[in-house]
Design goal:
Urease, subunit C, domain 1, seven-stranded mixed sheet, eight-stranded parallel sheet, about 550 residues, alpha/beta
């Protein structure tokens, strides 16, 4: 009997070998402390990649069997490997232009604001517009708004329109005002404010929200070459920060043209989901019908609109007046009837709608419009988004989860605005500011981003902000409204799987699992052993997109 048994065993082994040939070697293996984001297996020691796709996630032994003579091996040791970090809300090409422009973000005095503009203007050709800036008057003693007189003498040959960091207010010099035909007699448009001198009635140069449209009409169109250069600059910056997927809130269609040119050259180093203006929903519907929604590197199908302005510009729409502007409750940038019609039309066309809403009134009315669209058009996987969802009444928080509306939020804003928001809003309203914990507790889908250039692009700074809520002025070491802090893993999910879901990319990216895209971010330390108040010091060492290393730090 022994001989036949051995023969049977040998035959079985031979059959098994025939049925399961050895796995082809991986192109890349990454070892480290792997946080997969996959609830079925949250931790691992390695990830194997072949052809841009993950083929194995597991122990060192499980992954090592995919190693061949040509496999590249990255050993991060005890450092953390994450699913590729993502950003649900950027103004990406504008960010590239900003990197090439004057930087006023941390100008701490009016004198420094003027000095930087003067130094930048000296290097510019006569007649070239000076844009960008991202100034923050809340940094200045007394918080005065800038005026054209501050900069006229140092920018006599260049038209200037530099924006506040939130993008809802900017200051123009006299030359720019002349080119835009803005005078004392000019009436402010609906949804906009022209700030005027109280004594003379003349424009001070500060224009809020829709009032800036006259300036933008006077600014020359960017050339394709200029836009491509800005995109390349932005992509390099994003890769250095570990970003592998980026949602772009474009103000025009020229951004999409630039992304398409980069895609045709295989020059994208992050996956892009481009949102075009909500008012152009019909054009997008026709494009999607004719061309589809793109591919795994460049996707379309989303629309971005604006309900209101911003808190910093006192144009966010609230039910009650501002404390420091008691005659104002903010404004709707888009007429509410126009917004309702656009949302209903875009939804009927099967497009994803994302709308900026800051104030509590703007958020409540927007949720009403979304609920109406669902009632009228029936249930479907529409994934409405509220961009910012910044100030919420407590009664509106559970509506996100009930309606399945995605709260697309930017944690860094909380630790920035927390320095001065008490000047504008009472404590009752502030308790509903960036209510991360409350939203998650009511099962709201949460996706995190930066709002770059309004805030820094770094997702790690956003994670720090969500976990600590320590304001930038150091005055809230325990957290600004600490009950809204969230755990590290919750913040990571909002920057990975949450963004994937917000862009209909779950099942392809957002977690580390066999069969998904090999998008990974490698950090310079063990993130989970890092004290919360030191998370802002964490840096990216390697960024991998589709199995390709697009950034390696020193």
């Amino acid at each position: 009997m022994r001989g036949p048994v051995l023969l049977l065993v040998a035959a079985g082994l031979l059959a098994a070998c025939r049925q399961a040939p050895p796995e082809p070697p991986a192109d890349l293996i990454v070892y480290g402390r792997v946080w997969t984001g996959d609830t079925a297996r949250p931790e691992a020691r390695g990830v194997a990649v072949r052809g841009g796709t993950i083929v194995a996630v597991g122990s060192t032994r499980e992954v090592r069997r995919f190693q061949g003579p040509r496999t590249r091996v990255l050993d991060a040791g005890a450092r953390t490997v994450l699913p590729g970090l993502a950003d649900a809300h950027t103004h990406f090409i504008d960010g590239g232009f900003q990197l090439l422009s004057v930087d006023l973000r941390d100008a701490d005095t009016p004198a420094e604001f003027v000095r930087r503009l003067a130094a930048f203007a000296r290097k510019q050709p006569r007649g070239r517009w000076i844009l960008g800036g991202d100034w923050d008057h809340e940094r200045w003693p007394g918080s005065p708004l800038p005026r054209k007189e501050w900069i006229d003498s140092v920018t006599p040959d260049n038209p200037v329109f530099v924006s506040r960091l939130d993008g809802h207010m900017g200051v123009a010099n006299s030359l720019a005002l002349r080119l835009a035909h803005l005078t004392r007699a000019t009436r402010a448009p609906a949804g906009g404010v022209i700030v005027r001198d109280s004594a003379t009635g003349e424009p001070t140069g500060v224009l809020k929200d829709n009032a800036a449209d006259a300036i933008w009409r006077a600014v020359p169109e960017r050339t394709a070459a200029e836009t491509d250069s800005a995109l390349a600059t932005a992509l390099r910056h994003a890769a250095s920060l570990g970003l592998t997927t980026i949602h772009v809130m474009s103000s025009n269609w020229s951004d999409l043209a630039a992304f398409r040119r980069a895609r045709s050259r295989n020059a994208l180093t992050a996956r892009i989901y481009d949102f075009v203006p909500l008012a152009t929903w019909r054009m997008l519907a026709d494009t999607v019908r004719a061309e589809g929604r793109g591919d795994d590197w460049l996707r379309i199908g989303g629309l971005k609109g604006f309900m209101d302005g911003s808190l910093g510009s006192t144009t966010a729409a609230f039910y009650d007046p501002y404390l420091d502007a008691p005659t104002s409750r903010g404004l709707f940038v888009t007429d509410s009837a126009v917004m309702r019609g656009a949302i209903l039309s875009a939804d009927s066309a099967g497009l994803q709608v994302a709308v900026h809403a800051i104030g509590d009134r703007a958020n409540a009315v927007l949720l009403d419009f979304y609920a109406e669209a669902e009632r009228l058009h029936g249930a479907r996987d529409r994934r409405f988004r509220v961009e910012h969802a910044q100030h919420l009444r407590r009664v509106d928080v559970p509506r996100f989860g009930a309606l399945g509306v995605i709260a697309s939020m930017q944690p860094y804003h909380a630790i920035d605005d927390g320095r001065w928001a008490y000047e504008r809003l009472d404590t009752a309203r502030l308790r509903g500011t960036y209510a991360f914990h409350s939203l998650l507790a009511t099962n709201a889908p949460l996706a995190f981003g930066s709002d770059w250039t309004v805030a820094p692009l770094s997702p790690l700074l956003g994670i720090y902000a969500a976990v600590t809520r320590r304001t930038l002025d150091g005055k809230n070491p325990g957290g600004w409204f600490p009950e809204e802090k969230i755990a590290l893993e919750q913040a990571l999910r909002a920057y990975t799987a949450g963004v994937a879901y917000a862009g209909f990319m779950e099942g392809r990216t957002g977690v580390l699992r066999p069969g998904l895209f090999a998008d990974m971010t490698v950090l310079d330390r063990d993130l989970f052993a890092t004290p919360p108040d030191s998370l802002n010091a964490v840096r990216v060492t390697t960024t991998i997109v589709g199995g390709r290393i697009v950034y390696e730090g020193r």
